[in-house]
Amino acid sequence: MPKFESIEMEKKVSAESRDLGFESNKENKESKEEKELAAKERLEQTVVEVKNTKQRMKNIMNNMQQVIQAVRQIRQQLGLDGNDDDIPAVQRDQKTFEQLKVRLAELKDQLEDLKKALRAEEINHLREIEPETNEDEINLRADVIVEKALQAMGLE
Q1: How many other CB atoms sit within 10 Å of the CB of residue 78?
Q2: What is the residue-wise DSSP string for the chain?
Q3: Rounded to a whole number, what is the largest CA-CA distance in the chain?
Q4: Which of 5, 105, 117, 142 pairs as cysteine with 123 (C-beta 3.0–4.6 A)?
């Protein structure tokens, strides 16, 4: 292969690698943005699930109180003695309530992990766009961003 063709081939390969490098950087940037969006979406979904679980627990407590009150009234009208703990509907609701308490604790742990992940992603993002900013300022700004996001979701 003549020297001229060899140089042209090297230029072509070099240009293709730059194009690939550019595409790789673009894909990497898109991947980071997708990752950040995914963390926010998971956080939002978890917040919604926490709210729904809390509402279910509240509804169960209200239902249990209503059932207990109704059973007491009926027992009083009939002149029967009884214990509130022997009402099957209340027992089922108590069991469900306990399961929801466990689930709520799991969700709160998951929320903490997601907050940490979102904070880490915000720190990385801030480092990329403002490399001259010191670490303390970046950490502080990341905390503010995460707190605002949580407040916007109705948490904290």
Answers
A1: 8
A2: --HHHHHHHHHHHHHHHHHHHHHHHHHHHHHHHHHHHHHHHHHHHHHHHHHHHHHHHHHHHHHHHHHHHHHHHHHHHHT----GGG-HHHHHHHHHHHHHHHHHHHHHHHHHHHHHHHHHHHHHHHHHH-TTS-HHHHHHHHHHHHHHHHHHTT--
A3: 111
A4: 142
pTM (2 decimals)?
Answer: 0.67
Q: What range does the domain containing 11 cover?
A: 3-152
pLDDT by residue (tens digit) across 138-147? Answer: 999 999 998 8
Query: Rounded CA gap, 115 and 133, in Å?
Result: 22
| Rounded-to-integer distance, Cα 112 and Cα 101, Å | 17
Rounded Cα distance, 153 and 57, in Å: 20
Summarised one tens digit per residue, pLDDT across range 30-60 is 566 666 667 788 888 999 999 999 999 999 9
> Tokens 């904290």, residue?
156
